[in-house]
Fold these 2 entries.
Entry 1:
Amino acid sequence: MNDQSQPNPPSRSGRGGRVRAVTALAVAVLATGLVAACSPSTPARPAAPAAPPAAKKPHQATVGQVTGENGGTWTMTTAKGETLSVTLTPATKFGTPKAPATAQSFPVGTRVRVVGKRTDTTITANRIAQAKAKNATSPPSTPPSAPPTN
């Protein structure tokens, strides 16, 4: 009757319990991953489309000198020497909203700013206005006079 003479065998429930816990945890992790991967509630987002190439603005401004007028088509030459055809439409406005004008306000030789849709060498004009004067070189300033001597 000596209970201390024989050691107790290792508890199966202790080691087996740990094995079952680790197994259950592994199954839970795998199941969670599979559910998340197959879940229709989290659809994969499509890749964002690549940015389109930079396009010209639909209505850009071009400055130049009117070199010809023939009814609804004008010709202008830019500062870079490019010759453009300007198409006038019934919707073309002249001048600015604060200072409206007419087509007759811009005779050949006038420097204008044309806003409209450009295709190659043709601009369909939305608005034609007087171009701002080119930056003129200012005359050299006179040096300050010397302080008076006493």
Note: The domain at 60-130 is CATH 2.40.50.140 (OB fold (Dihydrolipoamide Acetyltransferase, E2P)).
Entry 2:
Amino acid sequence: MPLPWTAQRPAFGFSDSPDTWLPLPACYGSCAADTQREPPDSTLHLYRHLLRLRRRFRLGAGDLRWARSSPAGVLHFTNGIVEVMANLGRRAGPASARRSAPGRLHWVTGRLPPDATVWFTR
């Protein structure tokens, strides 16, 4: 789906005509970038924050290293000083006790729930 830019324009800012090759439902207007500038908990603010973290921790620029062993269903790797554990399975999996990024003190001990991801800084 293309990112809607402006909620009140034809084709949400992609065209001057509402007749585009990829029509978007009217409900997508609430996801338009211009409607998400103000609310601090919007998806736009979340993505901007995540992009800042990506630059800060140089994600994608460092060496990606897979963990030597990880439980079934748990994706576990490091990239620079960031360690990521993502539970893609249907059951809770073991998680290490570490400090999670970005700079807040959260300890993960015991189990990582299904469909959950945690980032740690080392």
Note: The chain has a mean pLDDT of 82.
